[in-house]
Amino acid sequence: MWTDTHCHLDAPEFAPDRAAVLQRARAAGVTGLVLPAVAVAQFDTVRALAHEAGAAYALGIHPLWVDQAADGDLERLAEQLRTHRDDPRLVAVGEIGLDHFVPGLDRERQRHYYRAQLKLARDAGLPVILHVRRSADALLQGLRQIAVPGGIAHAFNGSAVQAGHFVAQGFALGFGGTLSFESSLQIRALARQLPATALVLETDAPDIPPHWLYRTAEERAQGLPQGRNEPAELPRIGAVLAALRGWSLAQTAEQTTANAQAALPRLAALLRGAQAPLPEAVPS
What we know:
alpha/beta; TIM Barrel; 8 strands; 41% helix; 15% strand
């Protein structure tokens, strides 16, 4: 049983065939899905989709969306967390964090939203799903000042020292399509060296395609579309991790799923019922 701890199944790229995407995931053995929201406007859609698809979800405001967020969006998030606090499918606050890679973003506004959402997660007793892009130290500083019950550092690409600090704070680290590139030396080294209990798998679908779906700039210029990532690719990504660690596929699936449940405790109860048939249709 594989668990995709980060999948944007609500993305418009999945609108034409979302039910088929879910069926392919189940056929591939991916029985756990976590759907993080990125903006207040998506909260209802993500929650409904999680219930229809038998998945888990998280609510949060992504750092790339904070410049577009309304003044009342943090209060709307707080209200949603209060209203749905007993929903077993609500497993985290996320996707939240800091992005210091994309130029032109208001870093102080990002910091304000990040810290405010950490406080909401702390008050709700929920873990967080963190966006980490050239921002690991600043994220860690926030976590030291505003303690939350762990979570997942999504698409982790920091240093070994930074990874150790996240693990010490009770976080698992997410590894996905980037792991499949032989040129990803730092990420592959981390995947080999980190404690087994620190690793979770993710796709970030439809983004971060693994190397077998990736199209170079030259190929895209020739009219070839960028490959769409989806949860069914997770076992193949898991096979890369298995080779790096010297694990069997079964061991890799079992360990990373157990790690996901430890990082997102509400996920465990959901996965116990994950063998139920997938719905024939999901919201478009």
